[in-house]
Automatic annotation (TrEMBL):
Keywords: Cell outer membrane, Membrane, Receptor, Signal, TonB box. It comes from Pseudoalteromonas shioyasakiensis. The lineage of its organism: Bacteria, Pseudomonadati, Pseudomonadota, Gammaproteobacteria, Alteromonadales. It is found in: Cell outer membrane. Residues 1-21 form the signal peptide. InterPro entries: Beta-barrel_TonB (IPR000531), Beta-barrel_TonB_sf (IPR036942), Plug_dom (IPR012910), Plug_dom_sf (IPR037066), TonB_rcpt_bac (IPR010104). Residues 452-931 form the TonB-dependent receptor-like beta-barrel domain. PANTHER family: PLUG DOMAIN-CONTAINING PROTEIN (PTHR40980), TONB-DEPENDENT RECEPTOR-LIKE BETA-BARREL DOMAIN-CONTAINING PROTEIN (PTHR40980:SF3). Its main location: membrane. This is TonB-dependent receptor. It holds the Pfam family TonB_dep_Rec_b-barrel. Belongs to the TonB-dependent receptor family.
Amino acid sequence: MGKFKLSALMLALVAANSAIAATEEERTSAKEIDPELEVIEVRGFSRSLIQSLNQKRFSDTVSEQLSADDLGALPDVSMADALTRLPGISAVRTGGQAAEINIRGLSGGFVFSTLNGREQVSTSGSRSIEFDQYPSELISSAAVYKSPKASLIEGGVAGTVELQTASPLDNDQQHKFTANVRGMYNDRASEVFDATEYGDRISFSYQGKFLDDTLGVALGYARLFQPSVATQFIGLAYNGNKDVDGLANDTDGPADNPANEYISEGFELQHLGGEETRNGYLTSIEWVPTDNFKLKGDAFLSRFDSESFARGFRVKFGGPSAVYANPVLDGNAVIGGAINRTSNSFTRVEIVNDDNQDFDEVDSYGINADWQVTERLNVNADVSLSRAKSNFRNGLLWALVAEDATVENPVFDTNVSLNYQLNGLNLPDVGFNQADAFSDIDRVMVSKYGIYPYENEDEVKAFRLDFKYELENNWFSSIEFGARYSDREYSNNRSVFEYGNDGAFSSTQPPLRLTDDMTTVVDWQGEFSYFPSYLAIDLDKALNAWFPDGTPQPVQTWGNADGVVDLDGDGEPDAQGYTTNYSWTMLQSGSVYEEVVSAYLMLNIDTEIGSLPVTGNIGIRRVDTDQSATVLENVGGDPQLGAQYIVDDNGIVNDLYAPSVLGIKYTDYLPSLNLNFKVSDATQIRFAAAKVMARAPINRLAGDASASVNNDGEINGSSTNNPFLKPFYADQYDISYEQYFEDTDGALVVAAFYKNIDSFIDTVAIENFDFKGNGFNVPEYIVDPVSGEQIETTNGVYTTAVNNAKGGYIRGIELAYTQVFSFLPSPFEGLGINASYSYTESEVQSITDLGGDSVSQDLPGLSNNVFNGTLFYSYENFETRLNVRYRDDFVSEQVAVNEQVVNFDAETVVDFQTSYQFTDSFGMLLQVNNLTDEPTQSYFGTTSKTGTTQFFGRQFYLGFTYNH
């Protein structure tokens, strides 16, 4: 058998095992068949990296690989951390941990993810998978496909991440048991009052083969319990304008009011603490009753619970009615000065004690049957269910300063003045005239309590049937074709409980007098030590005192626009309340339905051009999508237009809306080509071209549309989301050069890519919109209330999210170098390096006005320069690794009062890991994550307009491993 045919054999082995590398025995057999073929050997500490290179080498697409040994040798906290070690991949840190990954300058919404080849849904409320919910201990391998092929499920413009769990019958041991036990410590937890300092990680796994190796069983459990700690300053958006310098001229300020400067809403200073608990479970059963049939069932479950608090200050500047003195300007934005409250402003300092609870569930189930019908024909059938649930409760306890909290009828202290000076990426200078009162229970009173539950559930059922038929010709080795059906439903539910007033003291819902047993004076430490002390309030004790009858939540007395309230919860309006409109809780609740039927045809290439072996594939995928969403249309309470009484979880009734379902159907054709030119045994060149798609975030398809008719009969409407949103499309091209070292272990890879994305989501006003034709329940005429005459309705403007924001190119280069210096003399032969660098640029820009003037900003997730370097060393039983991850500044979301898309500063994250193996079975491990305590820092447009400055601390892990 020639070298070329052996390469084809290796490709087939990789495809049959879902891009998992060939086993050690297979590689040895390959060398025996053709001793001249260079197959990279794997050994010692470098085994994982070299095995990953073998997987990449024999893959039929442009891809990156992580092997089982790589994940198991020195396990990362989650798959998010593990994936960021690959070229062109970076992570967005949430709470100090990597969660969402970016691929080639595109954010998580453009990344499609599968587990064992099955589509995964997310608890995020979008399509972006939260990889921190996948324990690395339970994942046996991972691949990132940067170029698609027709047989891959559609959905990744940035790329597709494929996670694989264990295949017990592929294990080279009859029975294998692994255990990891580690303790964890965060060195900043001591700076946060009532924060947890210590945590633990525990994992167990078992793989066994029975009945003459025809039955395989894999079981796994991984637990993570860790403190969630951060100390942060967050600047808020510039959402107002005011003439603060007294200079009125045509060039100073926004065009609609050239005398004004932009002013911020304020800022937050907070301690964050809490606990995160993740429990992961894995079961896999394989049965091979005959040589040509295999049945496998998998179940993966993850439970991620987070209970956290945020305490400190929320400073509200008070809008344009406040008095600004000695303003400091950055261009036309105020970044410092003295601010005083007036009778018309809302300037205040809120002492916040937030209590957040988030309970997430991820379930993935599947059954796969693989049947080698004949020597040439293979049939594979798969049935799967992926389900995610999130139950998030944001509980807020506000406190304000009173003139005297000891009197019978306390009065809110309106004598509020403050001064501040932003210092760019450093912490600001701040001063408060009420600073001494913030920690005085004779001045501070709880003024408001609110709970804002948000629940979402996402579920996809899928059925897949694939055929592969081996061919005998000089061009194609096989033909593959198949079909897939999936049915997805996403639902979300919002509600609100509120009592009191966060801007003053309510006379009907009076503030709570605090006592010593409810409070603790908290001092700031470290970099934040110069900020004034404040009162941390025990939430349970405060609520028990406020509601002594044991009411678990405050009685809801706020109503809809008509003031209607359902106090007894029977679904009927029975009281009048305040006239605050909480219909947003209903508009932001609903369901999205997505039914997809896809089919593909793919030819696997195995030929020669001259004497040059060429492998790869060419194919096309057809995708039919039927998507829809529930919608509440504002019909003004007219029952003839379908208005119904709608009641939320708190008994709030709204009768303005008519429910309906709106949606769209569309068909896509996605061609793809992958070519691998084998220049020599050690050198190959890849080329790939494809049309790709990524559907809009699932929550952006939710129906929050409304339409109304004015007195002239004109119909106008709007929606933040849009059930008619079509996917993002891109044409992409990849080329790479791969050189695998023949005389030592390692490789050099140079790659370039180009993506041309058609469009992005934008909010536009559509003139003369056909409301009735698009499913809106609107009248054909209205009656003039004065004349009684009928007025025929006409189409007006519909403002909504659409896919017409200007697209453009994303292009870049990637360099990857892996070298194990096995040629060095002892004891240095275990030294090695694994490094990658990527440069990405794009012409795609978006417009933001969060920093004042409307300015352009880069595509979310894009860093021009990303570097990842790992220096590793092994000697006898000792192993160690130092990893450095750097990314340029980028655009992403910061979470404050609302989610705000801002600029993030460049960051360098350093992790250190080392281990010692006492025996073949027993070893010790030490890890330090975020070794340099790198903060997260963001800004609005320019670094002088501070966004987030957040410190997470270092995480230390010490523990033991056992393998048998």
